[in-house]
Amino acid sequence: MEKEKQYQIEEIKRRTALYIGDNNQNLDNKTVILVDNGAATGATIIVAARSLKRLKRLIIALPVAPKDTVKLLKQEADMVEVVTSPSSNFHAVGQYYQKFEPIEDAQVIDICKRTQVKH
Questions:
Q1: Domains held by the chain: number
Q2: Are the beta carbons of 49 and 60 closer than 8 angstroms?
């Protein structure tokens, strides 16, 4: 778990630098909704949640996560919303999608540019 945690921290740093660069949004005292395509163990989203500081409120929103993972996530956020939370037969997030392909960095950068919050 510790090795995975360290890997995820480095991946978040890499993606933050790539996706946000110098355009870092001030999230102090703001409500943030942290969204992912699902959580199997919750490791990635837990690291992401812990990287956010001084928020007014943190909400985690997922389409799918097993019940045990949801319990862990509730310790990291003010609110956790999950559409489907199976208690058994959960093997991977991808089993709940008809088409489950990774999103390329270029796609994320494009989305970030198009949806930037203006203050």
A1: 1
A2: yes
The CATH number covering residue 9 comes to: 3.40.50.2020
List the pLDDT tens digit at each of the 119 positions of the chain.
788 888 888 888 888 788 776 666 778 899 999 999 999 999 889 988 988 888 999 999 999 999 999 999 999 999 999 999 988 889 999 999 999 998 888 888 888 778 765 54
**How many DSSP H helices and E strands does the chain contain?**
4, 3
pTM: 0.77
Residue 106 within a domain:
no
The whole-angstrom separation of Cα 48 and Cα 39 is 12
- The verdict on residue 118 lying in a domain is no
